[in-house]
């Protein structure tokens, strides 16, 4: 019997909350998107969350209070979804909530002789469960890290469910604040490959504010980037960063490709025209995606189709650049296959929540580096 599940996602772009109600069959397969909603954050809240997620030193009280606040905002999103869909909350099997990442440190660091790695997503699942009266699964990433994994990416399990084809190798690309890719070989005996390729929208969003003023929160349709010319010398210099050559499994975040990285690029490219400088910074996103496929995907698994989702699918400069860089790959939006490009990750966490309650492992060793497949998340009772 099919069940209704809710998925909640707030990504590294820090722009708001995506919420969905989906129908999932008893085997854990996605059937349909019933309802979706996007709740934008106010500018003042975005600024506060940006400071919280980027500061090296964090006020403990602020962190804890924002954990509560985000939990309440996620719960509000659920209420609006239920109101919009006219579905009774008693019919909802579970909520799967990713939360909002304020820190992701997957590399091992010794403290008192113990190797540590850590990730933190705020938006307390207990608050969501209490406010909505619905069983909630949250904090998905830490179980994978406890097993030696990177804690990311987690959506590849869902990508295979949604997009596997017997006749073609498929790649699923999500361009959020950070870009990540899943390679799904048509030969099922081959391992799934997935990793963060590098910056997505976030670096471009930071750069557009720095170069063209705070009134611009993003490069709408890639319009600024299209006006400039990519400087190949600067591109080679910034692509020389060690992350791009690190072998998967690997993951990253705005802690790495954030203000410090942007300051380095602006310093190296200070002699360039602002439009050329910005175009080069923006081009790093599609360039690093294409190069990652070339460097890390074996010939037998090389994608014939690239399915793109996330906010970056609306950036014409990104999409046109990808088509030029990967001329032999059919590049399409997930919308064309019936999966909303804006809500794919929220759909994914609804499925992961369902998996947790049915004791189905969702993390994949070949993707995250965990020691064995893990059942993810913490359960909050209503």
From TrEMBL:
Pathway: Cell wall biogenesis; peptidoglycan recycling; Amino-sugar metabolism; 1,6-anhydro-N-acetylmuramate degradation
Protein name: Anhydro-N-acetylmuramic acid kinase
Molecular functions per Gene Ontology: ATP binding; kinase activity; phosphotransferase activity, alcohol group as acceptor
EC number: 2.7.1.170
A GO biological-process term: peptidoglycan turnover
Protein task: Catalyzes the specific phosphorylation of 1,6-anhydro-N-acetylmuramic acid (anhMurNAc) with the simultaneous cleavage of the 1,6-anhydro ring, generating MurNAc-6-P. Is required for the utilization of anhMurNAc either imported from the medium or derived from its own cell wall murein, and thus plays a role in cell wall recycling.
Underlying gene: anmK
Domain of life: Bacteria
Annotated transmembrane regions: none
Family, per entry: Belongs to the anhydro-N-acetylmuramic acid kinase family.
């Amino acid at each position: 019997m099919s069940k209704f599940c809710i998925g909640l996602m707030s990504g590294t772009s820090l722009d708001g909350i995506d919420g969905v109600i989906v129908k999932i069959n008893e085997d854990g397969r996605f059937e349909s998107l019933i309802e979706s909603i996007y709740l934008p954050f106010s500018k003042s809240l975005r600024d506060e969350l940006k400071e919280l997620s980027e500061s090296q030193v964090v006020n403990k009280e602020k962190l804890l209070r924002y954990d509560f606040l985000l939990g309440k905002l996620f719960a509000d999103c659920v209420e609006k979804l239920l109101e919009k869909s006219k579905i009774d909350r008693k019919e909802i099997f579970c909520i799967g909530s990713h939360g909002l990442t304020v820190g992701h440190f997957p590399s091992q660091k010794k403290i008192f002789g113990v190797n540590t790695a850590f990730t933190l997503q705020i938006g307390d699942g207990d608050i969501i469960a209490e406010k909505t009266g619905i069983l909630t699964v949250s904090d998905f990433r830490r179980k994978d890290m406890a097993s030696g994994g990177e804690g990311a990416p987690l959506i590849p399990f869902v990508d295979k469910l949604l997009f596997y084809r017997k006749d073609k190798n498929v790649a699923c690309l999500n361009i959020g604040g950070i870009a990540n890719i899943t390679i799904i070989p048509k030969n099922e005996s081959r391992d799934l490959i997935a990793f963060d390729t590098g910056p997505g929208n976030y670096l471009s969003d930071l750069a557009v504010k720095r170069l063209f003023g705070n009134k611009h929160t993003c490069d709408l349709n890639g319009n600024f980037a299209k006006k400039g010319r990519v400087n190949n010398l600067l591109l080679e210099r910034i692509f020389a960063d060690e992350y791009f050559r690190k072998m998967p499994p690997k993951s990253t975040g705005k802690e790495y490709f954030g203000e410090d990285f942007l300051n380095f690029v602006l310093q190296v490219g200070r002699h360039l025209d602002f439009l050329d400088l910005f175009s080069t910074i923006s081009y790093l996103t599609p360039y690093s995606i294409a190069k990652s496929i070339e460097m890390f995907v074996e010939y037998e698994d090389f994608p014939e189709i690239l399915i793109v989702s996330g906010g970056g699918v609306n950036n014409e400069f990104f999409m046109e650049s990808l088509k030029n860089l990967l001329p032999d790959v059919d590049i399409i939006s997930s919308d064309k296959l019936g999966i909303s490009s804006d809500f794919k990750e929220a759909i994914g966490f609804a499925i992961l929540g369902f998996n947790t309650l049915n004791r189905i492992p969702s993390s994949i060793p070949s993707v995250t580096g965990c020691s064995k497949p893990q059942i993810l998340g913490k359960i909050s009772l209503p």
